[in-house]
Amino acid sequence: MKVLVASSIAREAIDRMRKEGLVVDERPGISEEELEEIIENYDALIVRSSPKVTARVIERGRRLKIIGRAGVGVDNIDVNAATQKGIIVVNAPGGNTVSTAELAIGLILAAARKIPQADRSVKEGKWERKKFVGVELRGKTIGVIGLGRIGYEVAKRAKAFDMNVIAYDPYISESKAKELGVKLVSFDELIENADIITVHVPKTKETENLIGEREFERMKDGVIVINCARGGIINEDALIRAIKSGKVYAAGVDVYSTEPPDPNSELLKLENVVTTPHIGASTKEAQTNVGLIIAEDIINLFHGYPVRNAVNLPSLSAEEFEYLMPYLKLAEKMGKIAAARLGGNFEKVKVTYRGKLAERDTSYLSRALLKGLLEYILGPNINLVSAMPIAKERGIEVEESKIEKTDSYESLLEVNVEGRGRSIYLAGTSFGRDDYRIIKIDKYKTDFVPKGHYIISLHEDKPGVIGRVGTLFGKNNINIAGMIVGRYGDKPGGIQLMLLLVDDPPSEEVLEEMQKLDGIIDAVYIHL
Ligand SMILES: NC(=O)C1=CN([C@@H]2O[C@H](COP(=O)(O)OP(=O)(O)OC[C@H]3O[C@@H](n4cnc5c(N)ncnc54)[C@H](O)[C@@H]3O)[C@@H](O)[C@H]2O)C=CC1
Ligand SMILES: O=C(O)C(=O)COP(=O)(O)O
């Protein structure tokens, strides 16, 4: 797997990937044009807030499987274009939270006490004590817009400064705010009542120009405004006007509509604007964190494991990831078995999650199942991102249900796949990370770990059939490592299911010979 690192990321992250056997090329500072030129050679791309990963880059990335954002905001990546192509986009939530919150607090203090301006003045040999009279934070109301990871940490620190904290975030629970003693208010209430306003929302269509002319007009006189989130969330022209009119006492700005900003921009010339060059995440700690988080997910994908922090897939907590991991493998393998047994004909997929599994986010498992099914007909380029849209495109009906009650297992995954008048039922469970088992195929009890070369066949329950199979494989020098024969009920006769675990895959000729043996009804080979 070849990884292109197109921004400067922590050395530890590069070393970690190389140690796992990944080929890592470092090209920090690469232009968008150069990126378009060379992306076709890579399976993975890592960026920070630049360069832009456009639809064109994605289109040209013929081998691209994953884009890693060593940070949080993914507004420089065309996530929709990536999803359409089945490319996973991962980021590093949490890795730079504290660093960015600390910078926001730093900018608040710098703006309130004019620290950078005072520094400049002293260094110029002046002693202007009257000029640098500021305002205290104690007792002031701070309005946090976006009480997510960074907003929460800013709120916590603001409390330590004896500030009254109000917040606006329509997607956060009342209890999360309460645990900090933060009052959730409406957007207008926040705008009208805060002495300091700080934004910590992602840049989306909804948040672009969230604070413009109208909002500045309604703010308290002498308000301090901080933007450590993204340029354009606070409209820059409106901010310049509000500063010039005296409405805004001071502003702290780390991010800009275009980066780097035009050196002639009026914003940079205003005395009471404290500026930094998008350094919210620029600490040793944050960079190590985000670099390693991204490296881990690239490595996960390399080893065929699901990723932790996909932006275009549901996110999972570490605990949930651990619990679901064996079921992900199980679901994918069940898909493979079903597709092989049905000869690639499937139109309807029914999944039932029973027991503890029913309480989990199972959307990953349904995707894994579809991945296994679709791979049989479309080859290995299906992944957890593309599986669902491709299934929809092909008119495959997917039905999911959850039943919390189970009889004998903590969790049970049941799958029913139908196509061209045939169907197959599979049930499986897990007893640990690598101990996942298929316990039933159709009406037959099985209990096996689906790993290795398997031949799954149906045969007549009569003497000699199994012996003939053994002779055939022996004659062809294929060692049978394990065998499960499932009888339905306890009476002899009828049709039996046979699972053969072999050390080497059988050739087509051997498989055909097996299919023709007296008593054998059908036989398919599957590498699981
Ligand atoms: N200056 C810098 O170097 C850095 C900037 N950032 C920026 O900060 C943003 C926030 O980062 P995190 O706190 O880690 O993300 P997060 O996802 O934990 O928090 C974002 C919060 O915004 C809320 N939100 C979304 N839309 C909203 C709306 N229309 N109105 C109000 N609230 C809304 C969400 O509910 C969520 O609670 C990132 O998206 C990124 O753009 C992040 C890290 C470093
Ligand atoms: O993580 C984020 O969203 C950031 O804005 C940090 O950007 P950077 O990785 O420092 O270019």
TrEMBL record:
GO molecular function: NAD binding; phosphoglycerate dehydrogenase activity
Pathway(s): Amino-acid biosynthesis; L-serine biosynthesis; L-serine from 3-phospho-D-glycerate: step 1/3
GO biological process, one term: L-serine biosynthetic process
Pfam hit, one: ACT
Alphabetized InterPro entries for the sequence: ACT-like_dom_sf (IPR045865), ACT_dom (IPR002912), ASB_dom_sf (IPR029009), D-isomer_2_OHA_DH_cat_dom (IPR006139), D-isomer_DH_CS (IPR029753), D-isomer_DH_CS1 (IPR029752), D-isomer_DH_NAD-bd (IPR006140), NAD(P)-bd_dom_sf (IPR036291)
Keywords carried by this UniProt record: Amino-acid biosynthesis, NAD, Oxidoreductase, Serine biosynthesis
ACT domain mapped to chain residues: 454-528
Catalytic activity as recorded in UniProt: (2R)-3-phosphoglycerate + NAD(+) = 3-phosphooxypyruvate + NADH + H(+)
Broadest EC class assigned to this enzyme: oxidoreductase
EC number: 1.1.1.95
NCBIfam families according to UniProt: PGDH
Family per record: Belongs to the D-isomer specific 2-hydroxyacid dehydrogenase family.
Protein name per the record: D-3-phosphoglycerate dehydrogenase
